[in-house]
Amino acid sequence: MIHITLPDGSLREYDQPLSVFEVAASIGIGLAKAAVAGRVNGTLVDCAFVISQDARVNIVTPQEPEGLEILRRSCVCLLAMAIRQLYTEVKLYAGAVVGDGFYCELTHEQSLQLDDLKLIEARMYALATTNHSINYVLSQSRQGNFEEMGDGPYVPSTRVLQAFTLAHLCGTSRQRIYGVCWASQQELDEWRAPQQVVVVNIDERQIGYAQSVTEALRRAGFRANSDLRKKNIGNKIRHHTLLAVPYLLVIGDKEMDGGFVSLRSGKGEDFGRMSVEVVCERLRIEVDAVAGKAAALPAIEIKREV
After folding, report:
1. Nearest alpha carbon to residue 191 among 178, 182, 203
2. Could you give the angle at which helices 65-86 and 134-141 cross, rounded to 10 degrees?
3. Is cis: bond before 153, omega within 30 of 0?
4. Is the C or the N end of the chain the one with fewer CB within 10 Å?
5. Please, are residues 180 and 101 in contact by the beta-carbon 8 Å criterion?
């Protein structure tokens, strides 16, 4: 008999080796549908991993940070496959998870344009709905000189990838396509909604810190995104200023090393360096003041605003 210990301490017995997916299915069909990986004796493995001896097992779903990263890693492969199908002469060089999403780096005889992203995204969704085995997607995306990000784990099949979008195209000769992926359409819609704060990094050295600042802002209750594109900081700031983002947090090496951020308003005011905690206090006061003004307006005026 194989004894499987679950996170709640309960014990299950099986009379033969079984996969992580089969463990999930024995617990419940809903869990099996949501499973993207497993943790066996502390090691992250894919759903096809076979357990042949006693083990502690945890089923990983997209509701956990590790599960969400697996979705995004798998989207890299799905994007690479879609690009190869649409542009036969393309050369793919790299792909990675970054921030709330993923990217692929490529060159093509004719540089891709923003309108091409709609076509590529549509192909990605078509591939996802056909429910391809992830092994098939991997074999297609790894062709040529594409540098894979490692051995995974990846989602068991493309049906799990249901809430993603291609957000940006950077570069002219060697280009990057950036996408965003979430566990649900609701989360993706929230990402698309107007933001109160956007965190921008100066270069790729600050990616990890910039994303951690973004997560801290979200935990504090603010609508916050990060712009981690490999792009000139001035261009990033102008881009979000045109989008009327109320506040920008700029992060370079000095901010990262000191554990601070540089706060700017969407109108170009520079408030200097401060801790994330101070930023949250300042923004909360601003949000409360705006809410107070709205509450003081006559009902008919509020209705007109809506």
Report:
1. 182
2. 50
3. yes
4. C
5. yes
Distance CA 217, CA 240 (A): 18
pLDDT, tens digit, 9 for 90 and up, residues 64-117: 999 999 999 999 999 999 999 999 889 998 899 999 999 999 999 899 999 999
Tokens 């000139």, residue located:
232
| Nearest of 130, 35, 134, 122 to residue 86 by alpha carbon | 122
Partners of residue 189 on adjacent β-strands: none
Q: What's the pTM?
A: 0.88
For residue 123, give Cα distances in angstroms to 75, 175, 179.
Answer: 12, 19, 14
Contact status, residue 137 vs residue 73, Cβ threshold 8 Å? no
Angle 126-129-130 (CA atoms, 0-180°, nearest 5)?
90
Query: Is 249 in contact with 231 (CB distance < 8 Å)?
Result: no
Inter-helix orientation angle 207-219/276-296, to 10°: 40
Predicted pLDDT at 14:
96
The alpha carbon dihedral of 29, 153, 137, 175 has a sign of positive
Helices (H) and strands (E) in the chain, counts: 11, 16
pLDDT of residue 140: 76
* Residue 300: CB atoms within 10 Å: 7
